[in-house]
Amino acid sequence: MKAHVNRAQAAVWWRRLWVMTAKEVQQLLRDPILLSFMVFVFTVNIYLQGSSVSLQLNRAAMVVQDGDHSAASRELIHRFRPPYFRLDGEVDSSREAIGLLDRGEVMVALDIPTGFQERLLKGESASVLMQVDATQSAQAFLATSYAARIVGQFGLEKILVREGLSSGSLEEVPVVIDDQRVWFNPNEKDTWFMPISEMLEAITLFSILLPAAAMVREKERGTIEQLMVSPLSPFQIMFPKVLAMTAVILFCMSLALFGVLGLVFQVPMRGSLPLFYVVTTLYIFANAGLGLFAATIARNLAQVGLLSLLILAPIILLSGTWTPPEAMPTWLRLATLASPLRHYIDASYGILLKGAGLDSLWDSVLAIGILGILIFSFGIRRFRRQFV
């Protein structure tokens, strides 16, 4: 008899959970503005970020002031060619080159002095001046690095010619060879990194925003008190909201994963997609506690949006998406461990690009789980205390 009663109670509990979850999904489907915003973020926004943002040096605009007009200077200039550099013409003076740099019309100005070839033929050292617009520091660093390699190779070849040697002669000289191997992204494509990063940030945003918005919507309509006096427990009120929003986020993530990352950018998905979905679900639940906490403070949807951005900012800044944790001070690097997004990034890139399994990513998954339990428990406790 007791077992029969327990089964009946369990059936009622699951039915309430199902009904409340279906209610939350229906309410979200009745909000076309929010749905349109989600679809935009998970499709168009990811495409724009992946196709427009690049960390590679591509056809950097360059002008030359050739004071020598010799065969050697022409040969050196010819080596600054696409895909890294783009020659936009020749200038007559340093003032003109600086003016172009100041106006942002070119990125690089190369100045070859008079007597450049004569010095090389005499065996003397010859120098060239390269001025770089370092407004974009990353691009400027790449430009100077590529230029240094081009000029260094040019100088080495001239030394070999002067000594009557060939490039094959270097094989007989003891040298240290820097043999680099690039794993997981051999061509170092930004279009593999940026779209995934944008998708993870979108998941973070909506995993906080949607549960908070669902809860505050009840406040605005005056139905939260009705739910509290119903036979539903606080958990049965909150958990269906999180469950429904998790399902919607996973659906939108699938659009981004297969429709944008896979179809448009050809991002390889080397690992287990079921594992990725499980980790993502765990991560959404971890952030949902922050959304529920924001809902206990906010009184309307506008406040929810502002609070979500306020919570989202430190999570992203401490995640390592924009600044690697290794480049941070020690105390700040330790603080990044409290950001769920940092562990989610490690797990996501490990699964999608590296093909890593749970045996390699267990520490990241465990960290997401621990943070999720702490944050979600805090959100539920805050919700209960609000109505006690």
Describe the structure.
The protein is built from 14 helices and four strands. By secondary structure, the chain is mainly alpha-helical. The chain has two domains: 233 residues, no CATH class; 113 residues, abc type-2 transporter like domain (abc type-2 transporter like fold, 3-Layer(aba) Sandwich), CATH 3.40.1710. Strands 2-1-3-4 form a four-stranded mixed sheet, with helices on both faces. β1, α3 and β2 form a beta-alpha-beta unit. 31% of the residues are buried. The model has no long low-confidence stretch (mean pLDDT 84).
In short:
This protein has 388 residues and is mainly α.
What percent strand? 5-15%
What is the alpha-carbon Rg in Å?
Answer: 29 Å
Oligomer: single chain
Largest sheet strand order: 2-1-3-4
Uncertain segments are none
Q: How much is the average pLDDT?
A: 84
Write the layout of secondary structure elements.
Blueprint: H1 2-29, H2 32-52, E1 60-66, H3 71-78, E2 85-90, H4 94-102, E3 108-112, H5 116-122, E4 129-132, H6 137-162, H7 190-221, H8 224-228, H9 234-262, H10 273-297, H11 301-317, H12 330-335, H13 340-352, H14 358-386
Parallel strand pairs: 1-2, 1-3
Antiparallel strand pairs: 3-4
Helix pairs in contact: 1-9, 2-7, 2-9, 7-9, 7-10, 7-11, 7-13, 9-10, 10-11, 10-13, 10-14, 13-14
